[in-house]
Specification:
There is one protein chain. The chain contains 17 helices and no strands. 82% of the residues lie in helices and 0% in strands. The chain has helices at residues 3-20, 26-33, 37-61, 67-87, 91-104, 107-117, 124-153, 156-176, 188-194, 198-218, 221-228, 233-261, 263-280, 288-302, 306-316, 321-350, 355-372. By secondary structure, it is mainly α.
Length: 374
């Protein structure tokens, strides 16, 4: 694999850590800002909405830029948002910082379009899995470490640390990435072209439902695990790390399965496994071992679908890959926002231990969308 992919993966590690760093420490954030856990959880929603709406606008606006310059802008926006969050004295300021971060998350679809452009077609699944490996590693390293630091020293400490890491990534991209990379940029004209393709619409619908299902639960992972099996901060950090390990396994296995079996078959099995685990998850209360078994399989299926989905879209039109990946990322974050919003409301009414059943409804809707296009 080209060395550039590993630099992009490292950047995605930092971005993924920042994106989901609050998921495991919503309780201290809520106490600090004097709001409910559900209200604090809307910081996940604000980030997701910005990714879905503002990030594509930045992508289109920088379509004629060199890819290096576009990535640099994305990292500047993300770092600035993190610093604003670290300073935030109230919820509106925190939400503004998260919106700025979400806009900077345009880095991810740009990186994905670079990944598929610099490798042979037979290696696109592997290239995408390497690029998204950083995102999965954020669940293993960044999210548990952030949760531990936040629970021990206050939630602003990991926020500042992630901002510093983002600035470090900016320096590395500036120094080590070639000025010219042979990868296309996104255009508004390309957007209209791809939206007329039926497979694109079906694939985007699947992404929307899939991530709504996953983030109904994942946005409130700390409260969900505590509701099912109350635990110490140390065990919660370990739990989040193990779930992240499963997510990494899912990312790698998703890329491998895509190259071996094709995206359609891979996605079909992933959705089936995800649905089954969400059905079983609320039944694991009182048994830490059972809960971990179910959620590790859940994470493997839930975070393994990015490579086959992106490969499926690239198969439609490599020339329009930036537009396709941007649309897919938008659906991902709209799903994240929808899941976080409904999860926060449902958790207050039904209890956080029942959120997997709420998310299951989205998974089943995703299945209907997928099977219609099979």
């Amino acid at each position: 694999m080209p060395p550039l992919l590993y630099l992009l993966a490292a950047c995605n590690l930092v971005i993924g850590t920042g994106a989901f760093s609050l998921a495991g420490i919503l309780q201290p954030v809520a106490r600090s800002l004097q709001v409910s856990v559900g209200a604090a959880g809307q910081s996940m929603t604000a980030y997701a909405v910005a990714c879905a709406v503002l990030a594509p606008m930045v992508l289109m606006g920088t379509g004629r830029w060199q890819r290096k310059a576009a990535l640099q802008l994305a990292l500047v926006l993300f770092a600035g948002g993190m610093l604003l969050c670290a300073w935030a004295p109230d919820l509106p300021t925190l939400l503004l910082g998260r919106i700025m971060m979400g806009t900077g998350a345009v880095f991810t679809p740009i990186a994905a379009s670079i990944a598929v452009a610099i490798v042979e077609p037979a290696l696109r699944g592997k290239a995408l899995s390497v690029t998204f490996l950083g995102m999965s590693l954020s669940y293993v390293i960044g999210l548990p470490l952030g949760a531990w630091l936040g629970l021990r020293y206050g939630w602003r400490v990991p926020t500042l640390a992630i901002a510093a890491c983002t600035l470090l990534m900016l320096v590395l991209v500036s120094q080590r990435m070639p000025r010219r990379v042979d990868a296309p940029g996104a255009t508004l004209r390309g957007l209209g072209e791809v939206l007329r393709h039926g497979e694109v619409v079906r694939s985007l619908g699947l992404t929307l439902m899939y991530f709504s299902a996953v983030f109904t639960v994942f946005s409130y992972s700390g409260p969900v695990f505590q509701a099912l099996n109350p635990m110490s901060p140390e065990r919660l950090s370990l739990t989040l790390m193990l779930i992240g390990v499963a997510g990494v396994a899912g990312t790698l296995s998703g890329g491998w399965a895509n190259d071996r079996f094709g995206p359609m078959r891979t996605l079909r099995w992933q959705l089936a496994v995800l649905s089954l685990m969400m059905l079983l998850a609320p039944l694991t209360g009182g048994s830490y071992g059972a809960m971990m078994t179910v959620f590790m399989v859940w994470a493997t299926a839930g975070f393994g679908m990015m490579a086959p989905t992106q490969a499926r879209l690239a198969r439609v039109s490599l020339r329009q890959a930036p537009v396709l990946f941007s649309l897919n990322t938008s659906m991902l974050y709209i799903g994240t926002a929808l899941g976080a919003a409904i999860g926060g409301a449902a958790g207050l009414v039904l209890g956080f231990d029942h959120l997997p059943w709420v998310g299951l409804g989205f998974a089943l809707l995703g299945g209907l969308t997928f099977w219609r296009g099979a």
